[in-house]
Design a protein that fits this description.
The chain is an alpha+beta fold. It is about 20% helix and about 30% strand. It has 5 helices and 16 strands. The chain has helices at about 90-95, 105-120, 195-205, 255-260, 280-285, and strands at about 30-35, 40, 50, 55, 60-65, 70-75, 85-90, 130-135, 140-145, 150, 155-165, 165-170, 185, 210-220, 225-235, 250-255. Strands 1, 2, 3, 4, 5, 6 and 7 form a 7-stranded mixed β-sheet that branches. The longest helix has 19 residues, at about 105-120. The structure holds zinc ion. The site of zinc ion (ZN) has 8 residues, from loops. Zinc ion binds near residues 125, 130, 146 and 148.
Amino acid sequence: MESDPPTVHAFAGSILDRRAELRGSGRKTRAVRLAGDKAVVEVRDSGKHQLALFEAAGGMCVHLGIGPDGDAIVAEETKPCELPEGQAFIDLRSLAMQGLLARGELAMLAQARSLLSWHASHRFCANCGEPTQMAEHGYRRDCGRCKAQHFPRTDPVAIVAVRRRSLCLLGRGHAFLPGMYSALAGFIEPGESIEEAARRELFEETGVVVGSVRYHSSQPWPFPSSLMIGLLAEGLSDEIRLDASEIADARWFTRAEIELMFAERHPQGLRLPKPAAIAHSLIREAAGIE
Ligand SMILES: [Zn+2]
């Protein structure tokens, strides 16, 4: 058994009490507002912003939880608009990557973004096609016609740092920023274990055979509703046979190279994800960097 405290990544670590039995309760109700991937925040000169909380407008909202002060916190979708002095719309990725919000507030936005996206894209019954209505304070949609109940989805993704001897296998997707490499990742398919998905993805994308797979930590990734399941795996073969339709490149990296990439001093300008991404922690662990 490991005695280390679990790693809590950006978008996890909410300060809200999320128990289902507390939905609909609370001293008073306050709302966070999002327009797509952007949330309304109170801008502070120090660079550590705060989440803006509003009187709930009374329209469509989803319950997030009960705050430390006993207030119910809900999420409302809004449209991009002029904001009062001191407030701004900032996208969730920037808030995370630049560390602009406290962890507990960022986690509330992740929950809000995933739930609001789910409601926006599940307005009709997948069973019979009739419009559905929100129920359970945002945690279910009901069909009035066929009585089907629909629940918010979470899409599991296996994200894997592969070690072989003293080398780490990293890759880059076609949409990555120039020079960026990361741990390889793929959605877990129905009827597949996490370990099987990790082995399949790695073999499909790089031709590398993976043996043992060990769980490291996980991260909610609200674009719109992924759960990144971070894994460390043992590579059993060296040769890389790239599937160019899936990824742009994959390579074995030495620890020295990875240190240079983290420090943004790699001679070819290669880089790695920031600490807000689970891949950062996985790559550090795989490379044996404290
Ligand atoms: Zn239906």
